[in-house]
Every structure is written in C-alpha cells, then in structure tokens.
Specification:
Layout (H helix, E strand, L loop, with lengths): L2 H20 L11 E3 L2 E11 L1 H10 L3 E2 L5 H14 L5 E6 L8 E2 L4 E2 L18 E5 L5 E5 L5 E8 L10
Parallel strand pairs: 4-9
Antiparallel strand pairs: 1-2, 2-9, 3-9, 4-5, 4-7, 5-6, 7-8
The protein binds calcium ion (2 copies).
One calcium ion binds next to loops.
Length: 167
C-alpha cells in the first residue's frame, strides 16, 4: 500500500467511525429503553401480565408489543434476555387466536414468516394461542396459554435512528 492509499484508508476508517457514532444518538430512545437498529425496546419485568394486558400496556406507552421481523433482531432479543433476564419467559406479539395454526403479528396483522420455534413447538394447539420467548430453550419461541402472567417486550421506532449523511 502506497503512502497515499494508506492515508486514504485511515481517513476512511475514521470517517466510518464518525458515521457510526452519529447514527446512534444517545437521545434516540427514552430512558430505560434499549436502542437497537432503528428501534427502541423495553423489557417489562415489574408488571407480570397476560398477553392482552401486555398488548394494551405497550400501546398505552406509544409502542407495540414486539414483532420480530428478522433473524438478526431475534438474535438481539435472545442475547439481551440471556444476559439480563435469563430465568423468565416473555410475551411477544404473535397469536394464532384468529385461526388455529396460522400465526399473525398483532401489531401489523401480517403472517409470521421468519420463525424460531423451540424444539417441538408450537405444540399445544387450541388453547395455546400466544407466543413467548421461552427461557427453557434459550428464548426460542413457544405457544402458550394467553392467560399466563409473564413479562413482555414493547418496541417502537427510534428517534433519528436512521444513518445521518455527512457533508
Ligand atoms: Ca394455538
Ligand atoms: Ca408450547
């Protein structure tokens, strides 16, 4: 690498770092919400709720119960729970209450496409219409009786979460 190329490389790396820092502003999420990608997440553990209460709570705070769209987002949630809340299950926003076996994300009404069901799940069928991330299987997915009381995860868009173009 010539001296000029090397200088360009260093400047490029520094510039990338600058963009990365500015794409994650500290005010993107409210206090106690976790910023990841373009979203903010709140892991509610102090208010054990049935699934419908969890849906309502998230809407009341201007969010939605979490909808998991990608493997990358799913891994973020699993890793966060494994490091911070490893002994309890958490409600997420999918249900097959409308048609047994047809799982929908409640916030967007879209069918669940990407999946990460735990071994032998979904298992119980009728009467088990709501989804948890289950601690028993490293926070992979489980169909659960909607009346159980668990913590839950709310999600909303981050403020200024998109990349900022400099220059
Ligand atoms: Ca079911
Ligand atoms: Ca199950």
């Amino acid at each position: 690498m010539s001296k000029n190329n090397w200088t360009g490389f260093v400047v490029c790396v520094l510039f990338s770092g600058l963009i990365h820092v500015q794409a994650q502003p500290s005010n993107a999420c409210p206090p106690y919400w976790i910023h990841h990608g373009l979203s903010c997440y709140s892991f509610i553990t102090g208010l054990l709720s049935d699934w419908m209460e969890a849906v309502t709570f998230c809407r009341d705070v201007g969010a939605e119960i979490v909808e998991i769209q990608t493997n990358e987002e799913n891994n973020f949630l699993k890793n966060y729970l494994l490091h911070n809340h490893k002994n309890a299950d958490f409600w997420v926003g999918a249900t097959d209450a409308f048609e047994e076996g047809h799982w929908l994300w409640i916030s967007s009404q879209q069918p669940v496409k990407f999946t990460d069901w735990a071994p032998n799940e979904p298992y119980q069928g009728v009467g088990f219409e709501c989804m948890t991330l289950t601690a028993r299987h490293g926070f992979r997915w489980n169909d659960e009786n909607c009346n159980h009381k668990w913590g839950f995860i709310c999600k909303k868009e981050a403020e200024n979460g998109g990349p900022i173009i400099i220059g």
